[in-house]
Amino acid sequence: MAAQRQDWDTAESRCAERRELAGAAASAAVAVEEGVTVRFRPIGRTDVDAADRWTFGGYAPGWLWSRELTRARRRPRRVEAAVYAELPDHTHVLCGLILGRISNRHVVASIHLLSRAPAPNPLQGRFAKIAVRYLEFCAAAFDCTTASLQRPIPELVDFYKSLGYSRVVEKKGKIERLERDLGAVLSAMRKGDQP
């Protein structure tokens, strides 16, 4: 049992390092592409407590971040970030949370849950695009060839398609996920180019 725990701790540490590298690379790309300074951090208790209280026009998401984070952290290979924007006075404000997974064979990196903080939010109108960029850098860090957005909000499907998520997988007449082949993107990243 102790050996299993040690193996899990080693895997968790290795995967956390990959997420940290992906976050740093995504931060640099977002600074150039969007002109904002963001930080991708592991989701903490205060982030979860804040997110569990977020509502949008009286509507609350159909999940609790506290429960979903506990469930997701059973797997070392995951996509996880609390996204903070740096304000002009150099303070940081929580703008949203991202949670997903890396497939067992490192083929697909996916976002399963995504939520932005309600207004005022310095990343309002840009948060989904920034989250997708983080996903793509996580995919690169874990050597995945496909990025996937699970059960996207119908109103955002066309937006995600404009970002290259054009492969639609349907289940029972509903969009189950949108996928993007990252072969060309990963090739550009390895050469040091911005995709």
UniProtKB/TrEMBL annotation:
The organism's superkingdom is given as Bacteria
Query: Know the name of this protein?
Result: N-acetyltransferase domain-containing protein
